[in-house]
Design the sequence.
DNA sequence: CGTTAGTTTGATGGTCCTCAAGCACTGTGG
DNA sequence: CCACAGTGCTTGAGGACCATCAAACTAACG
């Protein structure tokens, strides 16, 4: 038996599909072309036409769009095990920018690598498509939050979802997680001003729900936080494996 | 030469890929299992576990999520040529509801039909993946609008995007388009109250930008509307075909 | 030890929500 | 034919939520 959680993508997929030796090997092969990028230097520029897709191996990344007036909307954060820039490859042009929040390592994957892997192992293909669909579902949930949740519920939901995602790759639990985001990141993700983010965080902390401080998120009352956020982890937290 | 625009999906894809006879035939075959559904009766319920995917042949459809407090957020509208419920098939459970706005016709497609079509015609597979990626890009743009645009720009952007999509299937132009949506639909899509939607529409109309009235959208000043909305149709309006 | 990035607090005001009510149009049944 | 209910559109008044401006504070870093 190999080391099951050699990389975070494998770990994530293993939670939902029992992977065979062959499939584990294919996943490992996808991780070969490792590259490092340092924090703050855009990995992909908005509007860039030629680029590859990546699998994030370590570190945090942010995907965002800049408006004409200079304001920024963060679409999603990527954590280890997530794909970067898949859509950009298909559209042949990137509609958004991608920036490492901390120094990261990522494996470059060509469209051809992926197609070959799919042809070899159909079950793996299904697992990866599941992961991509899950990412899409998260974006939709994010959209709902921006449209129909007030600032408190939005923040609560965001912190809970991030916690659930991190748990899947062994970087978090119902107690909390390490988090390199600044309040400015939260503001740009949640469609709020950084000032209001600060007030919301204070309120949640004073109400004994969750603490965001010194690069660490602590759930003080997981149950009440879920209630406030109307958080339904179904789409993240598949109860049983999708494939036999 | 066959009738090129036998169905709206073919018409949409033809704008970006020169399709061969074989590919046209495969697309036609996907449309075989036609079904009709009447307005207002949910096609897919939020949380439903078993269902198929569809290609919309005629009519308008809305995808939405209902919150615990009863409020509704519309994620997207589908128009002829669009896919319905593709993600739900992969996730094995629907995270959103799907409701026809008017009486519609849709072709049911099984996952297996799609996979077979992909295997037969790789170029068609790429074209369809492009269409799916474009849908995703629209959801992202919608998210940005909710997070970072004020009500006026949001409305302007929405009406412009819809116009561009409809033009691709021959149902609209830079002059305007027929539109069966109510102001309540707009409110639920844009994260506003119906009352505020009404005021915004009045303002846009009085400023000579766009008129939304009696089931018809008329662009009174396309250029200024684009400027107000910061609308960039790149992601919808591929300048040159993606494939030779 | 000044600079910079990030956090915190206060004051003021605008955007947009909520409540309330009226109007126009359509279809229904007495 | 007319009362009626239902749906969708329109307008007004008051107020909540959150943005903006201004400024102080901390910690890290060269």
Sequence:
């Amino acid at each position: 038996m190999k080391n099951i959680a050699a990389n975070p993508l494998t770990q994530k997929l293993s939670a939902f599909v029992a992977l065979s030796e062959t499939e584990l090997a294919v996943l490992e092969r996808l991780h070969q072309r490792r590259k490092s990028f340092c924090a703050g230097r855009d990995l992909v520029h908005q509007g860039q036409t030629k680029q590859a897709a990546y699998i994030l191996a370590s570190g945090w990344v942010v995907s965002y769009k800049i408006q004409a007036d200079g304001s920024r909307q963060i679409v999603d954060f990527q954590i280890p095990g997530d794909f970067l820039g898949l859509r950009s490859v298909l559209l042949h042009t990137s509609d958004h920018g991608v920036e490492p929040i901390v120094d990261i390592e990522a494996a470059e994957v060509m469209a051809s690598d992926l197609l070959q892997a799919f042809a070899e192992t159909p079950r793996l293909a299904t697992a990866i498509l599941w992961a991509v669909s899950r990412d899409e579902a998260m974006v939709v949930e994010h959209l709902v939050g921006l449209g129909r949740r007030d600032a408190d519920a939005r923040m609560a939901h965001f912190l809970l979802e991030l916690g659930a995602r991190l748990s899947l790759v062994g970087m978090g639990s119902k107690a909390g997680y390490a988090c390199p985001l600044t309040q400015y990141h939260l503001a740009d993700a949640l469609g709020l001003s950084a000032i209001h983010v600060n007030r919301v965080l204070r309120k949640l902390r004073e109400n004994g729900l969750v603490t965001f401080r010194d690069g660490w998120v602590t759930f003080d009352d997981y149950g009440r936080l879920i209630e406030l956020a109307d958080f339904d982890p179904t789409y993240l937290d598949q109860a049983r494996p999708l494939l036999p």
Q: What stands out?
A: Residues 182-184, 194-195, 198-199, 202 of chain A lie near DNA strand C (CB under 10 Å from a C1'). The radius of gyration of chain A is 18 Å. Chain A has a mean pLDDT of 90.
